[in-house]
Every structure is written in structure tokens, then in C-alpha cells.
Amino acid sequence: MRHLMWLVASLLTLSAPAFLAQEPAGGQAQSSKIWLGRNAEFEAYLRTAEIERTTGTSVGVLGPRHAYFKPGGLAAGAAVKPFPPGRRDGFFESYMSEIAAYKLDRMLDLNMVPPTVER
Description:
This protein is α+β, with helices and mostly antiparallel strands. The chain has helices at residues 18-21, 39-48, 95-108; strands spanning 6-9, 51-56, 65-69, 77-81, 86-88, 91-93, 116-118.
């Protein structure tokens, strides 16, 4: 049976590309949403990046893990939730809901949800 999980690029763990290290033009504030305009690039990276190690987190109902990628990539790490779809405490939970939220966010151009992929 294939082990399903989803990855979401965590705002706290994304590596800032070189262009974010530069001074913002015109005194504008920089966004922490470094994936904007580069969604496909981040999605591909999340699908293929080698996970160096994982650790537990102290937050999250479904017990997410923090995955750390090898240094030098687009992201330093991501949140990982390896859980199969099913009922938990009377509610249906699924990793597919997280992916759907990301895709809907992209369709509506809200730019609120970081890249989320199945891996």
C-alpha cells in the first residue's frame, strides 16, 4: 500500500532567495510569501526534494512532522502529515482537503495558502 502524505511549505522554514535579501524598492514592505509567482517551482521542489530528517511538532491535531530538506534548496523544510483519509472524532479528515484548499486559493488568486502537494 502506498504511503500518502502531503507537504506544505512552512512560512517559518522557507529559505529566503537572494532577491529577498536586497533592499525593497521604494521603501515597500517585503512579504514572507516567497513562493508567490513561483508556485510551480515550489510545488516541483516539494515533490522531489530529499528529506534529510524529520522531527515531531508540538502543534496540530493530526500530529504533523517537520521535514528538513538538504541545505541549498528553495525551502529549508516543510510540514508533513502522513495520514490516510478517514473519520476522526466524528469528522472526516483527509490530506486531500489541504491540497484542495491550496488549489482553490490559487484559482481565486487569494495568495493565502502556501504550496501544498501530495508526495
